[in-house]
Structure formats: structure tokens, C-alpha cells
Amino acid sequence: MTDPVLRATGLTKRYGRRVALTDCTLTVPEGRVVGLVGPNGAGKTTLLQLAVGMLTPTAGSITVLGGRPGAGPAQLAKVGFVAQDAPTYANLTVAEHLRFGRRTNPGWDQALAEERIAQIDLDPTQKAGRLSGGQRAQLALTLAVAKRPELLILDEPVASLDPIARREFLRALMAYTAEHHTSVILSSHLVSDLERVCDHLIVLTASRVRVAGEVDELMGSHYRLTGARRDPADLPAGVEVIEHSHTQRQSTFIVRSLVPIDDASLTVEQLTLEDLVLAYLSRPVAPRRPELETAR
């Protein structure tokens, strides 16, 4: 059995009294495209920075590809990272970025880098500071994939892009992962983007993991139930209520159930991925101690 690409146990990150991530325990299998979703300030960036070794945990542990994040050149070479602002050097040309990548990454694939630059029609002589936001994001992705990582980590790389640039970026990402079988963790608050590309999901809110698992399994175990008004406690055994709302005569529940729901008084419907994510995002979180406040 292969090791997971990421394993976190009780992972916590604090900045003084501010909590950025709390008791995060999860496993990311190999070969998945993982969608990491949550509102701003949920802890997504903190989790990803812990995964690449930019931060160290306050408590708990995290391993990536069997090693400690950032633990030396060999570990660093296994992971490609594109930060939220798709960092590039404004005064360097596209070709100079590729030369920089070749000199700093022992596993650099120059042919792959040049092929991607040609495919996305970037002028090698153009300075990065004169590129559009979508072009800079594509250049940053090229630098990340040309090091031929085993795991590609992307922190909201399309958040500032227009819909066409987002689509092109995600299309290029999927083409690369399909060809090279690279594991991917993609952070976003745009569920529609994740729905198109991801087969594994992690939902973070208020610095805590609310749900995680294979998308197909999650979609197959979550339902919308509607029927005459009733108390959630009166639902069939084995049903976990994620969200509920009521009118004077009707109740609607978003639930998780690992067994078939056999109740003729209820209408049972499948959810969309967006329905599922929104239900967990709106689910109340257990209160913290008053002196603690969430940080990004």
C-alpha cells in the first residue's frame, strides 16, 4: 500500500492567541486532485504553507510524501508550489524565468517548460511585469510543473483571474496531471472550479476540517430530505443532520447517511457539490475560548 501524499495528525498552528489551524487530522491519498475549499480566513493558506515547509506546526504533525515538509533539497524537489499571487519577477523575461528554474531545480525538465510556454503562446522575450494576470499564473504553473514534482500545491491560483483565464488555467492543469499522474492539492473558494477538476474534497471553516473524502463517496452519502415539519431528532436512525430549515408546515434537511434512507414520508434528493460544501460552511462551529480568535 502506497503512503499518502499528505498526512496530518492533530495539526495546529497559532500565532500567539490567534488560531490559524486547529487539530487538523486528515489523509490525502496518492494520485488525487484534491479541492481544498473554505471561506477567506478558514486556514487554507496556513495548511498549504505547513505542507510546503514555509511554516512549522505549533502542535501535531504533518508529513508530505513520507517526509517532513521542507526538510532539505530532496524533499523540496518533490513538491511544486504556486502561491496565491502567482509570484513572478517583473523585470525578468519569460526565458529568464526558465533559465532560473533550470539552475535552481535539479530535476528541471527544460523540454516540458518550453513546450508549455509554446502551448500557451507566451513570448519568451516578454518581461513578466508586462504579462496579464492569466499569463503570469500560467508562467508560475510552468515553473512549478517543470521541476517534475510528485505533488503540486496551488493556493487559490485563479482567485484573481477572469472566467476565461480561469478556464484556461484549469484546462492546462488537468492536461498536465492526466499526462504525468501528479497529485494535486488545489485551494479555492470557487466551488464551480473544483467541481470540474477535483476527485477528493477537504472543507475547512474557522480553522477546522469539517469534512474530507473522495468526492464520489461524499456525493453518494449526502442527501436533501424534505417532508412535513418535524424535529431533527425524529429522523431515521443513522442519519447525521448537517443543516436544517423549517417553514410552518415543512422541514428541509441536509444529511449524511451511510445506509439507505427508508422513510416514505420524506422526499430524498441527491445534492450538488456546491450544496454539500455550502451546508458544511454554514454549519455552526463549537465556540472557542473567548481569548482565541481565528487568523488566516
Describe this protein's structure.
This protein has 296 residues and is of the alpha/beta class. The protein is 30% helix and 29% strand. The protein contains 9 helices and 14 strands. The chain has helices at 44-52, 73-77, 94-104, 110-119, 133-145, 163-180, 191-197, 215-219, 273-282, and strands at 6-15, 18-28, 33-37, 59-64, 79-82, 151-155, 183-188, 200-205, 208-214, 222-228, 240-246, 250-256, 267-270, 293-294. The strands form 3 sheets. A 6-stranded mixed beta sheet has the order 5-6-7-3-8-9, with helices on both faces. The protein has a 4-stranded mixed beta sheet with strand order 4-1-2-14, covered by helices on one side. A 4-stranded antiparallel beta sheet has the order 11-12-10-13, with helices on one face. Strand 8 (200-205) and strand 9 (208-214) form a beta hairpin. The longest helix has 18 residues, at 163-180. It starts with 5 loop residues before the first strand and ends with a strand. Residues 289-296 have low confidence and may be disordered. GO terms for molecular function: ATP binding; ATP hydrolysis activity. This is ABC-2 type transport system ATP-binding protein. Residues 6-231 form the ABC transporter domain.
